[in-house]
Amino acid sequence: MTIFGKRLSEYVAFSKPFLGLILVVGIVRFVLSFAGVPNSAAKWFSITVVMWIGGLYYAVKIHTSGSAVTNICSQSVSCRASRRR
Fold first, then answer.
1. pLDDT reported for residue 21
2. Interatomic CA distance for residues 74 and 51, integer angstroms
3. In this model, does residue 3 exceed pLDDT 70?
4. Cα–Cα distance between 81 and 85 in angstroms, integer?
5. What is the DSSP letter of 45?
6. Is the pTM of this model over 0.70?
7. What is the pLDDT of residue 31?
8. What is the pLDDT of residues 13-61, one digit of tens each?
9. What is the rounded distance in angstroms from the CA atom of residue 82 to the CA atom of residue 85?
10. ∠ at Cα 23 (20, 28), nearest 5°?
11. Three-class SS of residue 34?
C-alpha cells in the first residue's frame, strides 16, 4: 500500500519512537492501576500528552524535512492560487 508515493512501512518506521512511547506509557498506567497507586499519581503518565507532543514534533519534522506530503500540499496551494488569477 502506498500513500503519497511511500509505503506504509516507511511511515510506521518514521513514527516508531512515539508509537513505542505511547505503548510504554500505556503499560506504565496499566501497572500503576493494578499496583494500587492512586489515580492522582497515575494521571501524570498521560497518553494524550505523549500524542500531543508527538503531533507537534512530527509537524515540525515533516515541515523541515521537505517530505512528499509537504510538497503535495504546497503544490495544491499554488495551483489553487494560480487558478484564482
1. 92
2. 25
3. yes
4. 7
5. S
6. no
7. 93
8. 888 998 999 999 999 999 998 999 888 888 888 888 888 998 899 888 8
9. 5
10. 125
11. helix
Q: Please list the residues that pair with 6 across neighbouring strands.
A: 3
Which three cell numbers mark 2?
502506498
Residue 46 gets which letter from DSSP? Answer: -
> What cell numbers appear for 18 in the block?
512515539
According to the model, what pLDDT value does residue 79 have?
Answer: 54
As a dihedral over the C-alpha atoms of residue 14, residue 73, residue 2, residue 48, rounded to 10 degrees, the angle is: 40
Helices within the chain (DSSP H only): 8-14, 16-34, 39-42, 47-65, 68-84
Residue listed under C-alpha cell 499554488:
78
> Which cell numbers in the block locate residue 43?
494521571
Contact 50/18 with Cβ under 8 angstroms? Answer: yes
Q: Long-range pairs for 53-59 at CB < 8 Å and ≥24 separation? A: 53/18, 54/15, 54/18, 54/21, 54/22, 57/18, 58/14, 58/15, 58/18
